[in-house]
Write a structure and sequence with these properties.
It comes from Craurococcus roseus. Belongs to the GreA/GreB family. This is Transcription elongation factor GreA. By secondary structure, this protein is of the alpha/beta class. It folds into two domains: about 80 residues, Helix Hairpins (Orthogonal Bundle), CATH 1.10.287; about 80 residues, Roll (Chitinase A, domain 3). The chain is built from four helices and seven strands. It is elongated and about 65 Å long. It starts with a helix and ends with a strand. The N terminus is likely disordered.
Length: about 160
């Protein structure tokens, strides 16, 4: 007998902007990338012997990546639970918060937004809710210190600001 919680579909928390980006990526992959790679495969086939045709193999590899990403997005998008960050407030770190932290050793200041795993992008300053840093920050307030495990040893950070915007 299956338990109800085992049958539940996994939900992925995400901001509305994150969902829009995934939907746009899926539209781009299906509408532009997929047809382009199909044309590239067709053109490469026309060049003859496929066993030594680098263009053909590169196009097939690209097609495999595109189809895999489409399948992933088609699984994730219906399972997204959009969290309206505009309705969030308070002084505690939670999903959607922009958190400014200062490295207690180097005094380097960084600001991160805590988002869902499928929209996290370190370069853009957003970290996954499931990352070690986000896990350490959740529930804390301005002035609190957190210790985060890191490959080179634990790092200590002080929270200097929490905003929802």
């Amino acid at each position: 007998m299956w338990r109800k919680e085992e049958l539940a579909v996994q939900k992925f928390p995400m901001t509305a902007e994150g969902l829009a980006k995934l939907e746009e990526e899926l539209k781009h992959l299906k509408g532009e990338e997929r047809p382009a790679v199909i044309r590239a495969i067709s053109e490469a086939r026309a060049h003859g012997d496929l066993s030594e045709n680098a263009e053909y193999h590169a196009a097939r590899e690209r097609q495999s990546f595109i189809e895999g990403r489409i399948a992933e997005l088609e699984t994730v998008i219906p399972s997204v639970e959009v969290i309206d960050v505009a309705k969030l407030s308070g002084d505690q770190v939670k999903f959607g918060a922009r958190v400014t932290i200062v490295d207690e050793e180097s005094d380097e200041e960084k600001t991160y937004r805590i988002v869902g795993a499928h929209e996290a992008d370190m370069k853009a300053g957003s970290i996954s809710l499931s990352s070690p840093l986000a896990k350490a920050l959740i529930g804390k307030k301005v002035g609190d210190s957190v210790e985060v495990p890191a490959p080179g040893g634990a790092r200590a950070y002080e929270i200097t600001d929490v905003r929802f915007r």
